[in-house]
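Consider the tokenized backbone below.
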């Protein structure tokens, strides 16, 4: 008989989580590198996911093959901007460096995941891409384009917060971390301008900058402008967002 009963207390299955890496070409080095900050993978492991790094491809069949093998997509941040042409604009003063290959790959993955109603979590630049993919636009540079805005690129330790945000009740984000004031870190110079179609704003900074969004027509498509994974030990409530994401991923593919 091979029908062994499931042991009581056995941990739940770890859903496969695809994580998009950054890309860099160090000066004087013959090969480019994929780079991923360790906290992304650490927090996914900590809350019960199984992280996989997804190297870039412009082959649609490869993108589909990735999506066939994962249950949730985590799109990370980085020190680069989304090409303005992606949201119907041209470059203005203040636009930063672009990584077109990375953005094209992440956009294709994100569109495919959303089409499958697969859980998607966008962090920092990943949130901005989620808004663009869903038809929204961006401020190309907060300091130049948002009157009265505060500094959103903190100079100090990113495990420590920079400013509060107001998390709106009744949102997926509020379910994960609670509603009301939440202290967050801040490492961005762009932000959501016009939300995309069926995109709800779920957190906002005191200066009016949008800090979190979510789709109202997908099971879990959430973006936050801050880095909760950097504050997983200093402000542990932030881990709740990753817990929700992993639970949705587990439910997506049983």
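A designed sequence for it:
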């Amino acid at each position: 008989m091979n029908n062994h009963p499931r042991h009581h207390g056995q941990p739940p299955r770890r859903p496969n989580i695809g994580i998009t890496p950054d890309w860099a070409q160090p000066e004087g080095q013959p090969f480019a590198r994929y780079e991923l900050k360790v906290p992304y993978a650490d927090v996914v492991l900590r809350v019960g996911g199984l992280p996989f790094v997804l190297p870039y491809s412009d082959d649609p069949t490869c993108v589909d093959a990735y999506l066939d093998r994962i249950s949730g997509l985590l799109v990370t941040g980085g020190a680069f901007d989304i090409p303005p042409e992606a949201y119907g604009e041209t470059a203005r003063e203040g636009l930063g460096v672009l990584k077109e290959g990375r953005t094209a790959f992440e956009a294709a993955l994100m569109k495919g995941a959303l089409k499958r109603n697969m859980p998607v979590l966008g962090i920092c630049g990943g949130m901005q891409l989620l808004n663009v993919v869903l038809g929204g636009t961006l401020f190309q540079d907060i300091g130049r384009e948002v009157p009265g805005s505060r500094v959103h690129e903190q100079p100090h330790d990113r495990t420590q917060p920079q400013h509060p945000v107001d998390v709106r009740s009744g949102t997926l984000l509020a379910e994960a971390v609670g509603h009301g004031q939440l202290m967050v870190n801040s490492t961005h110079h762009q932000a959501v301008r016009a939300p995309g179609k069926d995109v709800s704003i779920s957190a906002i900074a005191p200066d009016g900058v949008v800090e979190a969004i979510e789709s109202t027509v997908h099971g879990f498509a959430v973006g936050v402008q801050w880095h909760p994974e950097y504050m997983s030990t200093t402000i542990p409530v932030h881990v709740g967002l990753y817990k929700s994401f992993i639970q949705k991923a587990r439910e997506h593919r049983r």
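The first helix runs from residue 38 to 46.
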